[in-house]
Amino acid sequence: MSSGAPLPVPIGEEGLQAVAARARDYALKAKAANTVRAYRADWRDFVAWCEERGLQPLPASPETVALYVAHLADAGRKASTIQRRLSAISQAHQAAGHESPTKSAAVRAVWAGIRRERGTAQEGKAPVVTEDIRAMVRPCRRG
To answer: pLDDT digits over 78-128, tens only?
Structure first.
C-alpha cells in the first residue's frame, strides 16, 4: 500500500464512533504517562485548595489561580512545581472547553513576580575543555 493512497472513509454512525474512539486514544497518548499522573495530582491539589476556601475550581477565575500560585510560592514550592501546576490547571480548563485562566494578566503578573523574587535562572556550569575530553576518551582507546 502506497503512503499516498487515500484512507477509507467510515460510513454511518458506527464508522464515525470507531474513528472518534481512535481520536480519543490518540489524544490520551499525547502526553507521557508520568506527565498525566503529575497533572492529575496537581489538579487534585488545586481542587482541594479551592474547596477549602469555598472557591470554584472549574472554571476558575484568574484571581483564584493567582491566589493559588501565591500560596504555592509562600509554601516554598519550587518554580518548576508551580509551573507544572499552572500547566495542569490550563490543561483541565481547555479539556472542559473553558478558556484557561492561566493566560490572564493577573496570573502572569503574580507568576512573573515569583520568578523574579526567586531568581529562577539556572546556574551555569563550567564548560568541558579539550584536555577534559581527552582524559575522558583515553580509557576508551584500543591498543
So the answer is: 999 999 999 999 999 998 999 999 999 999 999 999 999 987 755 667 888
Question: Can you give the residue range of the structural domain that contains 107?
Answer: 14-120
Instruction: Find out whether 67 and 61 touch, Cβ atoms under 8 Å.
Output: no
End-to-end Cα, the chain, rounded Å = 51
- Residue 2 DSSP code: -
DSSP, res 140: G
138 domain residue, yes or no: no
Q: Which three cell numbers stand for residue 111?
A: 507568576
**In a domain? residue 57:** yes
Please list, in sequence order, all residues whose beta carbon lies within 8 angstroms of the beta carbon of residue 31, skipping any fewer than 6 positions away: 39
